[in-house]
Design goal:
Helix content is 35%, strand content 13%. The chain contains 8 helices and 6 strands, in the order ββαβαβαααβαβαα. The radius of gyration is 17 Å and the shape is globular.
Amino acid sequence: MKTIQTFNDWVTFPKPNPQAKLRLFCFPYAGGSALNFRSWFDKLPLTVEVCPIELPGRGTRLREPLFTQLLPLIQAIACALLPYLDKPFTFFGHSMGGLISFELARLLCRDYGRSPTYLFISGYKAPHLPDFNPPIHNLPEPLFLEKLRELNGTPNEVLAHKELMGLFIPILKADLTILETYVYAPEPRLNCPIAVFSGLQDRGINCNDLKLWQEQTNASFSLQMLPGDHFFLHSAQSLLLQFLSSKLQQISSEV
């Protein structure tokens, strides 16, 4: 995937589309990268420019220090995004990316008076719900890997690849530190609609935890359950992109 480097390396443009009416910024799951969205560019409307976010410590930014706290991360992303908010924009985030996109939307609204036209959350419970799972980011490596398998939060093909895991373990631990040290703070509801997606076989999230996302918006809310586990993002990608295409086409016609 060819990436156009800009004055910052956060926002990638694998397939630049300057005529697009709308930008879709995509945020990856824990351990993921901009490459997670490499197959999306030709499957969404031509009115949309797909802009995957590359977090430090992966992809073209492999040598950069990893973030372990959410607030400094979203502050840095906000600064990087500002030059690209010159046209309507939407966020899509899966798992950790869902939390990032939600808190980023709140920060942009609070500090810059900017808001996405739509927030697409995938595979993540409502943020104001407590997390009763014991943290695993600080476990010794053998126990850490065992817990990853139990939680089914990392693709099996990655877990089975020793060399790959040697690279991924520091990234996964940093990303899980972000998730497990997150503390929700009440703020005014967002004014943009929220659409939530989840896998029907995702053992880590129940339907009620997803429905409570509607408490985070003054606008419309929808919930779409798709076949698959936590990584339905890949296994049910065609269904997910069909829904996104329909919604993004509608948004593009209104802006």
